[in-house]
Amino acid sequence: MRFATRRLAVGLVCAIASLAVAGAARASGSELIPSIGVTRSVHDSNADAQVYGGLAVRTTMLPGLKAEIGAAYRSEDRNGGSLKVRQWPVTGSLWLTPLPVIYAGGGVGWYHTTFDYAPALAIANQTTEKFGVHLGGGLEVPLGPAALDLNGRYVFLGTEQSQLPPQKFNPDFWTTTLGLAIRF
């Protein structure tokens, strides 16, 4: 069952990527969006928000519909600094654009995650790969040939295992980014 879910998620990411590449080939409404943002874990209410960065390509598929492929790097400390979680999400999204400056939607992503335990704990580091989904939206404020892009999303990843108490935790997180959408 888990393998079938993974194959379905890979298929969805590939389908969204294919649509985005096909749309980019038409060269109408394509944007390169470098961004910086803040991310915060849902599980740890005492955790500080962390800064992270990303890069996305967004293209108009149809009037009122955009597709996006993105990659980012984020990290967070857990369990009082005993565990550092580093993550490289690669996502595919579909955004409905009822107005040119507002969008909302969601997508799927592949989340490559490394758990780095403090050396004093003598616990081997581990790496996992998961598929997750996200919902969100944003504003795109035109600035001539570019635009400011403000995006927020909630990422659902399901339960994760840890060798520290508690053994299971919720890795879901929020992100808010500010990017510069460069049209090409």
From TrEMBL:
Q: Which Pfam families match?
A: OMP_b-brl (PF13505)
Which positions fall inside the Outer membrane protein beta-barrel domain?
Answer: 15-181
**Span of the secretion signal?**
1-27
Keyword Signal among record annotations? yes
InterPro entries xrefs? Beta-barrel_OMP, OMP/PagP_B-barrel
Q: Which UniProt keywords apply?
A: Signal
Where on the tree of life does the source sit, at the highest rank?
A: Bacteria
Protein name listed in UniProt? Outer membrane beta-barrel protein
